[in-house]
Each structure stands twice: as C-alpha cells, then as structure tokens.
Amino acid sequence: MGGKLFRNFSFFSATLSFFLLIGIFAILFTYAQEALAEFGFDFLLSETWEADEDDEGGIFGGYIPIIGTLLSTLIAMTIAVPLAMGIAIFLTEVASVNIAKSVSVAIELLAAIPSIIYGMWGLFYFAPIVQSTVGGNGVGLLTAGIVLAIMIIPFMAAITRDAMNTTPHVLKESAYTMGATKFEVIKDVILPYSKGGIIGSIILALGRALGETMAVAFLIGSVMSTVKHVTDPTTSIPVLLANNFAEAEDLEMSSMYYLALILFVVSFAIISTAKFYFLGRKPK
Amino acid sequence: MAKDKVSKHNLVMDIKDFTFTYASAQVPSLKNINLPVEENKITAMIGPSGCGKSTLLRAMNRIHDLYPGNTYKGEINLYTEQGEAKNILKLKKENDFIKLRQEVGMIFQKPTPFPMSIFDNVAYGLRLSGLKNKSILQGKVEKALKDAAIWDETKERLKESALGLSGGQQQRLCIARAVALKPRVLLFDEPTSALDPISTGAIEELISELKKDISVVIVTHNMQQASRLSDYTAFMYLGDLAEFDKTEKIFLNPSKKLTEDYITGRFG
C-alpha cells in the first residue's frame, strides 16, 4: 500500500519534469509562430531590430543577441574552466587541510552571491579596469564575459572539488605505490575517475552562463550593434528580452518568443550533446 | 631476540627499534618494533584489529608520507642486492620515494584497478618508469599477466576497461601490475578480505608462486591463511610485536600465552 503510493508519487515527479520541458517548448513555439511565419530562418542572420512607428510591425532579426550570447559564454568558459580545475585540484590534492577548509568556505560563499551584485561590482569597479587596460568603453562583450567567468568559477570549482574528492584513497595510494608523482596521480587517476562529475559541473556552469541575465545586462552595454572588437558593447538574448519585454507588442513580442525559443534550443542542444558525448562513453 | 632466528645475510628488509606516531595521535601506534624480513620468503603479520599491523606495513614503503605530520623513530633497512643496508626512513625527496615504491610494491585490501584498459593498467608503472618501446612493453605486460595467472582470462580483452573484470580478477590484475615493476618486496594488506573463497584460493596460490622471485609481507585477519601461506609469522598486539618466529612454531608451540590465546580464538 505505502509502497504503491510512493511508487506513484516518484513516477509522477519524474514524469512532471519531462512534461514541463515539452510544455515550455510548445508555448515558446506557439507564441513564436507569427515571427517564424514572417521572417523564417532569415531571422538568425538579420541584424536589424526595429519596430515601425505605429508599433504595428517592423523588422526584427536575432543575429546580434545570438552572437552576443554565444561569444560572452565562450569568453566566460575559456577563462573559467582552467581556473576552476586549478582551484579544485589545489583544494583536493595540494593544500593542507586547514587551508583547503577556509578556501572552500570562501568558494561556497562566492557561489551564493546573487548575480545582480556581480553586475554592480562589475559595472562600477571592474569595467573601468578593463577600460584602462584593454580599451573600449568599459562595458562590452569582454567585461561581460570576464564577470560571467568570475560568477561561474566558484560554482564549477565547488562541484569539481566534490567530484574529485570521491576518488577512493586506496586508488590514489595504489598509483603512488606504482611510483607515480602527485602530478601523474592527478592526471591518470583522479581526473579520469571524476570525469563524469567534472563534465557535469562544466555543463551546469555553461547553462548558467548562457541564461545569465542581470549581471550581463549591467555589463554588456545592451545596444543592438554587431561586435567588431572584443571590447565593443552589444547585447545578448536574455538581456534583450528583459529590456524590451515590457513595451513590445504583436510582431516584436512574437520575435522575442522566437529568440527565447532559440536560446532554449541552443542550451538544450549544447547540454545534451555534452552529456551524451562525454557521459555516454565508458572510461577506457 | 628474534634476530638470531633468521640468518642475517638472507634479509631483504630489517626493522629495528621502530616507533611510529600518527600526526593526530599523542601516543605511538607502534612501539619498538624489531622485525627481520627474509628474502624469498613469506612473512605474515597477524593480530587483532587496531594492533598496528597495517600501520607497520604502510611504513615499509612510506605510503604514510602521503599524509603529513607522522613521526618515525628507529630504522627500516632495505638491503640492496649487494647486501648493503639503506635506511628508508632517511628518504626525503619525491624521487627517492618513487624509487622505494617501485622496489617495495603494495597490494591493497580492495582491488584498485585504474580507470583504464587492462593493458594500460599493467603498463602504467612501466610507462611511469620511462619505458616507451611498444614491443618491449607488450612483452613485459604479457609476462606480468602470466606471472599473475590471469593471462588466459585477459588475453582476448586487453583493450577493454579493467573495471569490467570480476573482483578476484581485478585483484590478480593489481598483482600483475605490481609484479611488472619487478619489485624486490611486495606488501599485501589483507589482499583477500573482499573476495570469495575461490578467488581467495587463486590469490593464495599466486602469492606462494611469487616468492620464487619476490619477498612477501602479508597482513591478514585470517589465521588459516597465515598458517597455510607463510614461512614466518609475526603476532602483533596493541602496537607491540608480541612474538615473531617460524610459522609452525607460532601455530603449534607459541612461546607466549597471549599468542596461544589469539591463535586458538580465545580473543580477537
């Protein structure tokens, strides 16, 4: 009796997430119909985002925010992955217990800071630094990418550290008894053993970087212009949606649903490819 | 006392007045241990849980040093093939530890295959020591797998993950991996306690084969195993070496009451 109830409940919970996924996709797809019919796939390559004066129609294209989203995420991941791996390796294998504990607490606290705080800090403190070292206006693709990296590093480092900590002591010890150095133990035993968890942390961080709205809105410049230089201001899908949602009507609204659909599909595609590609294979 | 029972020139290791204290402990876990390890013989360490037998074993290749703060006193000598003694407690550099651990290998309680193929598991130590030539590597891996009596079961699947082997096969693979490095001493830390009786039999047979080329020290909870396998037995109790002698003597006619009580199962 109790077993059956529990079984049904867990079955319900498990299927719920599946139906939510399909439901959200269906809604986005339905609302995007108008823009899909009007612009088709040219939407992906058009750089114009302009409503007519009477607000009835206009020309809307997603190229700039799509590229802005992908590039800012790429910058963030390029910086964050090596640093987060370094932090995790330091915490699990190099640091003494006391240092590892205090650094771990700091990392976990950093991961808990709301993104708007990173945005404000980035705008008032970090953007001027970027401006004086690399040039540009301060706000722009590079600043957004770096602050995004800083946001996802603690998160990625904490999960990677937990994954590495699951490597059994005897496994490490047996590599040492074969005459391995610390570096070889990390490379040959710990990283392969915790590969699944590490990829998982990267995927979660990637999802967060793709969808991050507030911090990026502060820092990317929020202008509809193509990036020619890495410090140029531009916009990203979530930022454009957040900025324009309140005033948009009809075709513009539908175009934004189209953008949201693209973000949904892109995130889903990246995450599922990463998952199937890396986690589907058994260690060799 | 025990030293005169084994002739000195046959020793491969010799532990003298050895005292060991863990980083977090106030009192030593091992007190004044004197234990000779004879070449090409099997020396068993028995005793109740917490008596320090694994601690002593783990001092013999200084695997303790992976965790900082432990203190050593006394000597643990490893004799070179020329009969020269070197005190392994004096080693400080990572390179010296690596050399020591290639000479004094270790097998753990649970099988510990690395997350790589069967071939790569056995080749791992050889590659670390700088061997790159493929055909030599293949020859040595095959020899090691044959020595560890697991060649027939693995020759068709050398490229497959070692994690797909059964527990007993994994343990023999770990032995092959250690044997491939041609160590002078192999330390076994309860190597069969996670295995079924048939796998245990296979491992025991393998260990007694190995002693032709390698000196063996084995920690075991299983007294039958110690009496079946070993040439010498050390009985440890509460951080002391209570009695050390030829295995028949320990099991048939121990000189201490404590030893007799333990081997007859009156405590432990």
In the CATH hierarchy, the third-tier topology of chain A is known as: MetI-like fold
| Count of individual beta strands of chain A | 2
Poorly predicted residue ranges of chain A: none
Biggest sheet of chain B, in brief?
Answer: 6 strands, mixed
The total strand number of chain B stands at 10
What fraction of the residues of chain A are assigned to beta strands by DSSP? Answer: under 5%
Largest sheet of chain A: 2 strands, antiparallel
Oligomer: heterodimer
Please, what is the average pLDDT of chain B? 90
Question: In CATH's first tier, which class of chain A applies?
Answer: Mainly Alpha
- Secondary-structure element sequence of chain B? EEEHEEHEHHHHEHEHEEHH
> Structural class, judged by helices and strands of chain A?
mainly alpha
Radius of gyration of chain A: 22 Å
Question: How far is it from the N-terminal to the C-terminal residue of chain B, by CA?
Answer: 25 Å
Strand order of the largest sheet of chain B: 6-7-8-3-9-10
Determine the CATH superfamily of chain A. Answer: MetI-like
- The number of helical segments of chain A is 12
Helical content of chain A stands at over 70%
What is the radius of gyration of chain B?
18 Å
If you had to describe this structure to a student in words, what would you say it looks like?
The complex is a heterodimer of chains A (284) and B (268). Chain A has one domain: MetI-like (MetI-like fold, Orthogonal Bundle). Chain A has helices at residues 2-31, 33-39, 63-94, 97-111, 115-134, 141-165, 169-177, 182-193, 195-211, 214-219, 237-244, 250-279; strands at residues 49-51, 58-60. Chain A has 12 helices and 2 strands, in the order H-H-E-E-H-H-H-H-H-H-H-H-H-H. In chain A, helix 5 crosses helix 6 (141-165). In chain A, a hairpin with a 6-residue loop joins strand 1 (49-51) and strand 2. With 268 residues, chain B is an alpha/beta fold. In chain B, the strands form 2 sheets. Chain B has a 6-stranded mixed beta sheet, sandwiched between helices. In chain B, strands 2-1-4-5 form a 4-stranded antiparallel beta sheet, with helices on one face. In chain B, helix 3 packs across helix 4 (134-147), helix 3 runs parallel beside helix 6 (167-179) and helix 4 (134-147) crosses helix 6 (167-179). Chain B is globular. Classes of the chains: A mainly alpha (284), B alpha/beta (268). The A-B interface holds A 96, 168, 170-182, 184, 188-189, 192-193, 282-284 and B 61, 63, 66, 68, 94, 98-99, 101-102, 105-106, 108-110, 112, 114-117, 124-125, 128-129, 159, 161, 163, 174, 177-178, 181.
